[in-house]
């Protein structure tokens, strides 16, 4: 059984965010660190990518809501 793994750059492209945003979210513990590291590189499995996508979606919705309340 082979599990596909994704680098930080792969995940950033898949989720349409800049890699530095993922670095920041990980360093501030806003999102979970992936379980696997190989040669110092973070590697996400598909389940972790899906969880990260959901977290980012929630954060973006909260930010939009705050902006709407501030501007409205």
The end-to-end span amounts to 52 Å
Mean pLDDT: 92
Number of helices: 3
Main sheet record = 2 strands, antiparallel
| Low-confidence runs of at least 5 consecutive residues | none
Tell me the fraction of residues in β-strands, as a range.
5-15%
Biggest sheet strand line-up? 1-2
- Tally of separate domains: 1
Element pattern in H and E: HHEEH
Counting DSSP E segments of at least 2 residues, the number of strands comes to: 2
Provide a descriptive summary of the structure in words.
This protein is mainly alpha-helical. The protein has helices at about 10-15, 20-25, 45-70, and strands at about 35-40, 40-45. The chain has one domain (about 10-70). Helices cover about 60% and strands about 10% of the residues. A two-stranded antiparallel ribbon has the order 1-2. The longest helix is centred in the C-terminal third of the chain and has 26 residues, at about 45-70. The radius of gyration is 14 Å and the shape is elongated.
